[in-house]
Amino acid sequence: MATNEFPQGFKAVVAKATLQSSVIRWLFIKQHKVREPVPGKPTDRTLFVINVPPFCDETALAYTFSVCGEVTDVFCHARPNPGVPQQSSGIFNKRRELCIYKVAYVVFESPEGLSRALALNNDMPLILHCEQSGVKLGIDKWMDKYDSALLNHNELETEIKTFMVEFDAEEKRKEHEAKMVGEADEEGWIMVTNKSRKRGIARTEVIRKKILDKEKLKRSKRELKNFYTFQIRESKMKHLETLRKKFQEDKKKINAFKQTRKFKPF
Q1: How many CA atoms lie within 13 A of 254 on its CB side?
Q2: Residues with Cβ < 8 Å from 9, sequence gap 6 or more?
Protein backbone atom coordinates (compact mmCIF):
# COMPACT_ATOMS: atom_id res chain seq x y z
CA MET A 1 0.00 0.00 0.00
CA ALA A 2 1.39 3.37 -0.96
CA THR A 3 1.99 5.99 1.66
CA ASN A 4 -0.37 8.94 1.78
CA GLU A 5 0.99 12.48 1.89
CA PHE A 6 -1.23 15.21 3.35
CA PRO A 7 -0.99 19.02 3.54
CA GLN A 8 1.25 20.70 6.11
CA GLY A 9 3.75 17.85 5.83
CA PHE A 10 1.66 15.15 7.51
CA LYS A 11 1.92 11.50 6.57
CA ALA A 12 -0.85 8.95 7.18
CA VAL A 13 0.07 5.70 8.90
CA VAL A 14 -2.29 2.73 9.35
CA ALA A 15 -2.87 1.51 12.91
CA LYS A 16 -5.10 -1.06 14.61
CA ALA A 17 -6.28 -1.38 18.18
CA THR A 18 -5.39 -5.09 18.22
CA LEU A 19 -3.84 -7.52 15.78
CA GLN A 20 -7.19 -9.31 15.30
CA SER A 21 -9.18 -6.09 14.86
CA SER A 22 -10.72 -5.36 11.47
CA VAL A 23 -11.11 -1.64 12.22
CA ILE A 24 -8.41 0.49 10.63
CA ARG A 25 -7.31 3.73 12.29
CA TRP A 26 -5.13 6.45 10.81
CA LEU A 27 -2.37 8.25 12.67
CA PHE A 28 -1.02 11.40 11.05
CA ILE A 29 2.66 12.02 11.76
CA LYS A 30 5.36 14.54 10.92
CA GLN A 31 8.53 15.95 12.43
CA HIS A 32 8.00 18.33 15.33
CA LYS A 33 9.21 21.80 14.33
CA VAL A 34 8.82 25.05 16.31
CA ARG A 35 10.47 28.47 16.21
CA GLU A 36 11.72 28.30 19.79
CA PRO A 37 12.98 24.77 20.61
CA VAL A 38 12.08 23.24 24.00
CA PRO A 39 14.69 21.06 25.78
CA GLY A 40 12.11 18.32 26.46
CA LYS A 41 11.04 18.16 22.81
CA PRO A 42 14.12 18.45 20.56
CA THR A 43 13.09 18.99 16.95
CA ASP A 44 15.63 16.50 15.56
CA ARG A 45 14.30 13.62 17.72
CA THR A 46 10.58 14.38 18.25
CA LEU A 47 7.70 12.93 16.22
CA PHE A 48 4.40 14.84 16.20
CA VAL A 49 1.36 12.52 16.08
CA ILE A 50 -2.31 13.55 15.77
CA ASN A 51 -5.60 11.60 15.77
CA VAL A 52 -4.44 9.48 18.69
CA PRO A 53 -7.39 7.34 19.97
CA PRO A 54 -8.73 7.98 23.51
CA PHE A 55 -7.69 4.53 24.81
CA CYS A 56 -4.08 5.02 23.72
CA ASP A 57 -1.83 6.55 26.41
CA GLU A 58 1.88 7.39 26.71
CA THR A 59 2.89 3.81 27.54
CA ALA A 60 1.09 2.40 24.51
CA LEU A 61 2.59 4.97 22.15
CA ALA A 62 6.07 4.33 23.50
CA TYR A 63 5.67 0.61 22.80
CA THR A 64 4.02 1.20 19.40
CA PHE A 65 6.83 3.41 18.06
CA SER A 66 9.60 1.38 19.70
CA VAL A 67 9.79 -0.56 16.40
CA CYS A 68 11.49 2.53 14.96
CA GLY A 69 13.94 3.03 17.81
CA GLU A 70 14.20 3.50 21.56
CA VAL A 71 11.66 6.01 22.87
CA THR A 72 12.73 8.18 25.80
CA ASP A 73 9.57 10.30 26.38
CA VAL A 74 5.98 10.59 25.21
CA PHE A 75 3.80 13.64 25.91
CA CYS A 76 0.04 13.70 25.24
CA HIS A 77 -1.99 16.92 24.98
CA ALA A 78 -5.58 17.80 24.17
CA ARG A 79 -4.28 20.15 21.45
CA PRO A 80 -0.84 21.04 20.03
CA ASN A 81 1.39 22.42 22.77
CA PRO A 82 5.12 23.14 22.36
CA GLY A 83 5.75 22.99 26.12
CA VAL A 84 6.33 20.01 28.39
CA PRO A 85 3.57 19.15 30.92
CA GLN A 86 4.57 19.50 34.55
CA GLN A 87 5.13 16.34 36.52
CA SER A 88 2.50 16.18 39.27
CA SER A 89 2.91 14.28 42.51
CA GLY A 90 0.47 13.30 45.22
CA ILE A 91 -2.97 11.77 45.26
CA PHE A 92 -4.87 14.95 44.47
CA ASN A 93 -2.47 16.21 41.78
CA LYS A 94 -2.58 13.24 39.44
CA ARG A 95 -2.95 14.16 35.78
CA ARG A 96 -6.33 13.14 34.43
CA GLU A 97 -6.44 10.75 31.51
CA LEU A 98 -7.39 12.46 28.25
CA CYS A 99 -10.42 10.42 27.15
CA ILE A 100 -10.58 12.21 23.80
CA TYR A 101 -8.79 12.12 20.47
CA LYS A 102 -5.53 13.87 21.25
CA VAL A 103 -2.09 14.74 19.96
CA ALA A 104 1.20 13.25 21.09
CA TYR A 105 4.91 14.02 20.95
CA VAL A 106 7.13 10.94 20.74
CA VAL A 107 10.76 11.67 21.63
CA PHE A 108 13.33 9.16 20.36
CA GLU A 109 16.77 8.58 21.82
CA SER A 110 18.47 9.31 18.49
CA PRO A 111 17.55 11.13 15.25
CA GLU A 112 17.68 7.76 13.44
CA GLY A 113 14.54 6.68 15.31
CA LEU A 114 12.68 9.74 14.02
CA SER A 115 13.88 9.05 10.47
CA ARG A 116 12.66 5.44 10.62
CA ALA A 117 9.28 6.60 11.98
CA LEU A 118 8.85 9.09 9.13
CA ALA A 119 9.77 6.33 6.66
CA LEU A 120 7.02 3.95 7.88
CA ASN A 121 4.89 2.43 5.13
CA ASN A 122 1.40 0.97 5.36
CA ASP A 123 2.34 -2.59 4.46
CA MET A 124 2.32 -3.52 8.15
CA PRO A 125 -0.11 -1.59 10.42
CA LEU A 126 0.98 -0.39 13.83
CA ILE A 127 -0.57 -2.26 16.76
CA LEU A 128 -1.77 0.01 19.56
CA HIS A 129 -2.88 -2.66 22.00
CA CYS A 130 -1.16 -5.83 23.18
CA GLU A 131 0.02 -7.38 26.44
CA GLN A 132 3.37 -5.58 26.30
CA SER A 133 1.89 -2.12 25.51
CA GLY A 134 0.03 -1.88 28.81
CA VAL A 135 -3.16 -0.61 27.20
CA LYS A 136 -6.38 -2.02 28.65
CA LEU A 137 -9.65 -2.17 26.75
CA GLY A 138 -13.23 -3.06 27.56
CA ILE A 139 -14.12 -4.26 31.04
CA ASP A 140 -10.45 -4.49 32.08
CA LYS A 141 -10.07 -0.76 31.43
CA TRP A 142 -13.14 0.19 33.48
CA MET A 143 -12.11 -2.10 36.34
CA ASP A 144 -8.65 -0.55 36.41
CA LYS A 145 -10.17 2.95 36.31
CA TYR A 146 -12.45 2.09 39.24
CA ASP A 147 -9.55 0.67 41.27
CA SER A 148 -7.44 3.76 40.63
CA ALA A 149 -10.31 6.00 41.78
CA LEU A 150 -10.23 4.44 45.25
CA LEU A 151 -7.90 6.29 47.60
CA ASN A 152 -5.38 4.55 49.80
CA HIS A 153 -6.05 5.77 53.35
CA ASN A 154 -2.41 5.46 54.44
CA GLU A 155 -1.14 7.44 51.43
CA LEU A 156 -3.89 10.01 51.93
CA GLU A 157 -3.03 10.47 55.61
CA THR A 158 0.68 10.80 54.80
CA GLU A 159 0.04 13.42 52.11
CA ILE A 160 -2.26 15.43 54.40
CA LYS A 161 0.31 15.42 57.21
CA THR A 162 3.06 16.49 54.82
CA PHE A 163 0.91 19.30 53.47
CA MET A 164 0.02 20.54 56.96
CA VAL A 165 3.68 20.52 58.07
CA GLU A 166 4.66 22.60 55.01
CA PHE A 167 1.67 24.91 55.54
CA ASP A 168 2.53 25.51 59.23
CA ALA A 169 6.15 26.22 58.33
CA GLU A 170 5.07 28.75 55.69
CA GLU A 171 2.70 30.46 58.14
CA LYS A 172 5.45 30.71 60.78
CA ARG A 173 7.78 32.23 58.20
CA LYS A 174 5.18 34.85 57.22
CA GLU A 175 4.50 35.64 60.88
CA HIS A 176 8.21 36.04 61.56
CA GLU A 177 8.61 38.38 58.57
CA ALA A 178 5.63 40.45 59.75
CA LYS A 179 7.23 40.87 63.19
CA MET A 180 10.57 41.86 61.66
CA VAL A 181 9.02 44.77 59.71
CA GLY A 182 10.14 48.02 61.32
CA GLU A 183 12.60 46.33 63.69
CA ALA A 184 16.37 46.45 63.33
CA ASP A 185 18.28 43.19 63.01
CA GLU A 186 21.67 42.32 64.54
CA GLU A 187 23.53 44.50 62.02
CA GLY A 188 21.13 47.42 62.41
CA TRP A 189 19.24 46.96 59.15
CA ILE A 190 15.48 47.60 59.10
CA MET A 191 13.19 45.71 56.74
CA VAL A 192 11.04 48.06 54.66
CA THR A 193 8.07 46.87 52.61
CA ASN A 194 5.58 48.59 50.35
CA LYS A 195 2.64 46.85 52.04
CA SER A 196 0.01 49.31 53.22
CA ARG A 197 -1.42 49.04 56.71
CA LYS A 198 -4.85 50.10 55.47
CA ARG A 199 -7.22 47.28 54.84
CA GLY A 200 -8.59 46.95 51.35
CA ILE A 201 -12.20 47.76 50.50
CA ALA A 202 -14.49 44.83 49.85
CA ARG A 203 -15.50 45.03 46.18
CA THR A 204 -19.18 44.26 46.65
CA GLU A 205 -21.92 45.47 44.31
CA VAL A 206 -23.24 48.03 46.84
CA ILE A 207 -19.81 49.56 47.49
CA ARG A 208 -19.04 49.62 43.78
CA LYS A 209 -22.31 51.51 43.11
CA LYS A 210 -21.49 54.04 45.84
CA ILE A 211 -18.05 54.65 44.35
CA LEU A 212 -19.53 55.17 40.87
CA ASP A 213 -22.14 57.59 42.25
CA LYS A 214 -19.42 59.62 43.99
CA GLU A 215 -17.40 59.75 40.78
CA LYS A 216 -20.45 60.97 38.83
CA LEU A 217 -21.13 63.65 41.45
CA LYS A 218 -17.53 64.88 41.32
CA ARG A 219 -17.62 64.90 37.53
CA SER A 220 -20.88 66.88 37.47
CA LYS A 221 -19.41 69.50 39.83
CA ARG A 222 -16.42 69.94 37.57
CA GLU A 223 -18.61 70.56 34.52
CA LEU A 224 -19.29 74.22 33.62
CA LYS A 225 -23.02 74.88 33.29
CA ASN A 226 -24.52 77.97 31.62
CA PHE A 227 -21.08 79.18 30.66
CA TYR A 228 -21.85 80.09 27.05
CA THR A 229 -24.61 82.44 25.86
CA PHE A 230 -26.49 79.75 23.96
CA GLN A 231 -26.46 77.55 27.09
CA ILE A 232 -28.05 80.34 29.14
CA ARG A 233 -30.69 80.95 26.42
CA GLU A 234 -31.52 77.22 26.18
CA SER A 235 -31.82 76.87 29.96
CA LYS A 236 -34.23 79.83 30.10
CA MET A 237 -36.38 78.40 27.31
CA LYS A 238 -36.54 75.02 29.06
CA HIS A 239 -37.49 76.70 32.32
CA LEU A 240 -40.32 78.67 30.63
CA GLU A 241 -41.59 75.54 28.92
CA THR A 242 -41.65 73.73 32.25
CA LEU A 243 -43.58 76.57 33.90
CA ARG A 244 -46.14 76.60 31.08
CA LYS A 245 -46.70 72.87 31.36
CA LYS A 246 -47.15 73.17 35.12
CA PHE A 247 -49.61 76.07 34.65
CA GLN A 248 -51.74 74.07 32.22
CA GLU A 249 -51.77 71.06 34.55
CA ASP A 250 -52.83 73.26 37.49
CA LYS A 251 -55.68 74.76 35.42
CA LYS A 252 -56.96 71.29 34.58
CA LYS A 253 -56.87 70.30 38.24
CA ILE A 254 -58.82 73.45 39.29
CA ASN A 255 -61.50 72.84 36.63
CA ALA A 256 -61.84 69.25 37.76
CA PHE A 257 -62.29 70.39 41.38
CA LYS A 258 -65.00 72.93 40.34
CA GLN A 259 -66.97 70.31 38.40
CA THR A 260 -66.95 67.78 41.23
CA ARG A 261 -67.75 70.33 43.97
CA LYS A 262 -71.26 69.93 45.49
CA PHE A 263 -72.57 71.93 48.47
CA LYS A 264 -74.61 69.75 50.83
CA PRO A 265 -75.35 71.56 54.09
CA PHE A 266 -77.71 68.81 55.33
Answers
A1: 6
A2: 30, 31
Report whether pLDDT(69) > 80: yes
Strands 71-77 and 4-5: unpaired
d(CA 2, CA 71): 26
**What whole-number distance in Å separates Cα of residue 223 and Cα of residue 103?**
60
Q: Residue 106: which residues within 8 A CB-CB, separation 6 or more?
A: 46, 47, 49, 61, 62, 65, 71, 73, 74, 117
Q: How far, in Å, are 16, 17, 29, 160 from residue 21 at the CA level?
A: 6, 6, 22, 46
3-state helix, strand, coil in the chain (%, to 5): 40, 15, 40
40-74: string of b/e by CB count within 10 Å (b at 16+)? ebeeebbbbbbbbbebbbbebbbbbbeebbebebb
User: What is the CATH number assigned to the segment(s) 4-149?
Assistant: 3.30.70.330
More confident site: 204 or 71: 71
In three-state secondary structure terms, 264 is coil
Q: What are phi and psi of 108, to 5 degrees?
A: -90, 160
Domain ranges in the chain? 4-149
Beta-bridged to residue 38, according to DSSP, are 41
Q: What residues contact 97, with CB distance under 8 A and at least 6 apart?
A: 57, 145
Using the predicted structure, report yes or no on whether residue 132 has a pLDDT greater than 60: no
Q: What confidence tens digit (pLDDT) does each residue in 154-198 have? A: 888 888 888 899 999 999 988 887 777 666 666 767 666 665 555
Q: Look up the pTM and report it.
A: 0.52
Spatial CB neighbours of 216, under 8 Å, sequence gap ≥ 6: none
